[in-house]
Amino acid sequence: MDTQSLLLERIFLTVFPLVAIVTVGFYYARRYKIDMTTANQVNIDVFVPALIFSVLSAESFDLVQFQDLAICAAIVVIGSGILLFPACKLLGVHPKTFIPPIMFSNSGNLGIPLMVLAFGEDALSAAVVLFLVENVLHFTVGIYILDHKTRLINLLKMPMIAATILGLIWSGFDLSVPQAAATCIDMLGQIAIPLMLFALGVRMTSVDLKNWRIGTYSAVLCPASGILLALACQHFMQLSSEQFAYLVVFGALPPAVLNYMIAERYNQEPEQVASIVLIGNIGSLLFLPLTLAFVL
């Protein structure tokens, strides 16, 4: 099997489990009426912070080496929201519902393994930096978009922000986590993504045709805006060929499942956000192979 076939197979094997778990949640909720409110709260306060700390503390990397890439990643994230803000009126969707999923991509559970497969182990540090940029912006700018009254001091009290800061400290000072504690944290973090996906499937039971249309539009606009901004950044920043390839793939990633979790918490039309996230990840089965064909 040639390299391109292996990449296509890996992309399918990465995205298919996400869709499959969502489907399980969907059909389970159709048969049994369940309330995921408590599970979602525990996930966002315990399991997701454990996942963040586990990723950041496990890899030691030089942020200075990737400072230009980090700047470009921030431009891609924030610029996507600015670029597509006018589309909200055309699509008849509230900006608070549409813009965050467009801005904040699936750079963790999809982006990291995808980049390592496509570019090798040398891409791991860059992939973690991109995840870090997206994650920090998500829980600062992203939360502010949903709630303008949010104060910075309150953000610092959020478990996910605390986990990010601690993870950076552990990585920056090259500290080690005791094996017993590391195993516990890793196990808690491993719960986060499957539970997010299952909860997304439960939410999809209330999705209607209108929401599916919004999801379809976003599935195209999300990677298109990200790639366009990555190309614009390269014109001015002149990244190395490797870092430019990482940035393009980062720009093409679909919306993060976490967008749904946060929309649920802030009661910001989670049904529509669920459609944007789900269809965006399905659409990545088409857009990511095309993107990899462009950069490889």
From TrEMBL:
Q: Which domain of life is it from?
A: Bacteria
Localization, UniProt: Cell membrane
Q: How does it sit in the membrane?
A: Multi-pass membrane protein
Q: Which UniProt keywords apply?
A: Cell membrane, Membrane, Transmembrane, Transmembrane helix, Transport
Looking at the UniProt entry, the stretches that span the membrane are 12-30, 42-58, 64-86, 98-120, 126-146, 153-173, 179-202, 214-237, 243-262, 274-295
Name used for this protein in its record: AEC family transporter
Species name for this entry? Answer: Neptuniibacter pectenicola
Similarity annotation = Belongs to the auxin efflux carrier (TC 2.A.69) family.
Q: What is the lineage of its organism?
A: Bacteria, Pseudomonadati, Pseudomonadota, Gammaproteobacteria, Oceanospirillales
